Amino acid sequence: MAHCPFDFVNDGKKHTICLVGGGGKTTVMYELAAAWAACGRKILVLTSTHILQPADGSFAADAAAVHNLWQHGRYAVIGTPELATGKLTAPPQEVYEALQPQADVILCEADGSRHHPCKAPAEHEPVLLPDSDIVLAVAGMDALGCSLAQACQRTQLAAELLDCSVEKIINAQMLASLLLSEQGARKNVGARAYYIVLNKCDLITTAQQEEIRRLLVSAGMDEHRIWLRERGE
Questions:
Q1: What is the rounded distance in angstroms from the CA atom of residue 138 to the CA atom of residue 197?
Q2: Which residues of the chain have pLDDT under 70?
Q3: pLDDT 10s digits, 30-85
Q4: With the CA atoms of 134, 187, 52 and 233 taken in that order, what torsion angle do they form, in degrees rounded to the nearest 10?
Q5: Would the CA dihedral through 49, 51, 56, 57 be positive or negative?
Q6: Strand, coil or helix: what is 89?
């Protein structure tokens, strides 16, 4: 199953997973979806905000199309098409409720970052599915060495959370704070299991990887719930 080290990947249980945070969410989501589908599991993919409509034939316009994709060992993407943008928004609630009991794993992109590697959530974000049991936060390591203004969506909110200027250069401590704060990526997680993907780790040194891992663990994060992911995994 891909290179994902998380315990839920091979536990055989039903999960509803919401992905939040910065750039890389969609890549990680589809990587997990494809790997699970290849193992014969029925995978449903959606968004509670906006994602690009996939061009690979995985979009399912109705329940029959979902089941056809599952029968062929593929994941199914559902949503409401926006013709003007080419994006999908959340599917109708009745469609989701009809398919939810039939899926083995559900993956939902629960906020956007406009391709920024990190972010602070606005008041209306994230839009977590009520039935989700896992939240997966993603941050791109290409944020390190850039200013908040350059690399962080909701720059002013992030600056207020971190008590710094928008021109402050992002370091490992700042990124860890954004990932662990309940006003940051951990917002509204509550009792859900929380995992972190440090994306594009091939862009930083091993020492930098270990520094941010250490900061997260020392703040109480389970080291087994941290994925140091390289591009192309």
A1: 5
A2: 1-2, 232-233
A3: 999 999 999 999 999 999 999 999 999 999 999 999 999 999 999 999 999 998 99
A4: -50
A5: positive
A6: strand
